[in-house]
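tool_call: predict_structure(chain=1)
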Amino acid sequence: MKTAFSFLWVLVLTTTAFAAFAATPEQESRAESLVAQAKERYQAGDFEHCAQLYMKAYGEVQRPAPVFNAARAYEQAGLWAEAKPLFELYLQIDRGEDADSLAGHADAQRHLDAVNAKIAADAAAHNAPPPPVAKPVPPDLPPVTITPPPVTHSPVIVDPPMAEPPKDLADLSAQQPTDDTWSGKKQAAVVTLSVGGVLIVTSIAIAIIAHSDLANLDARLQADQVANNQGLILHSSVTQVQMDSGISTYNARQIAAGVLGGVGAAAVVVGGYLLWQDGQQSNGHVALSTGVVPNHGGAVWTLAGHF
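tool_result:
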């Protein structure tokens, strides 16, 4: 997606606002049909769909009235961020000096002021800290005397004596290393390698999610294109706020994936270096040994090792 898509909605409307108001009869007919549909949606309370139909009508015949009506519909729907640029656009393109134009200009300015106040109030409410939660005071309870249960002794189970293992198997068992503890450097190496691997896998997952969301937004934009009489592309249902939010989320996830991947790779390198140093100090000793543990008339073969 190109960065210019984030400004597509306002750019297209501002460009068409300075075009001539003349339109073909076919465009006039389509615009009248769209306006009639928009009025039906307004009466039904479907304000967001109503605004989209008004903007499609504006794409057919560039007159100020559909822009004002679309802004009012978004305002009725409580979509202040979508209504604000349309009120501002109407104030730019309605330059008439007659009484109706002057009255419409004053009405649009009044609604714009109200929308700006709503946006400021929502921002203040979003940034306000949550009210403190009072901790409940437990009631005073009378002391409770707890009587311990009587102690019972479990019967002692004595295992039968184990058979003496063959001499050759006992010798193999005696050869097992007795000190399997890891050094502090080896423990740090294993922990660092594990953390690095987790960070790398997390960064890959975040990058996949970011690309998936961006692809979904691109698909919506491709399916939502409406061309006006000047060959410009309008998007009737994907709003400016949605496009900006999608791009910002994609960029943030890409940065997070890059940072996590870089830190994870660095952790893997450090862990490998620590593991190599520990091997150098222990002369690269790697030991594997077999053994036998007697078990009620039989034996269990074991394989043990350390590095």
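agent: DSSP finds nine helices and four strands in the chain. Proceeding to next step.
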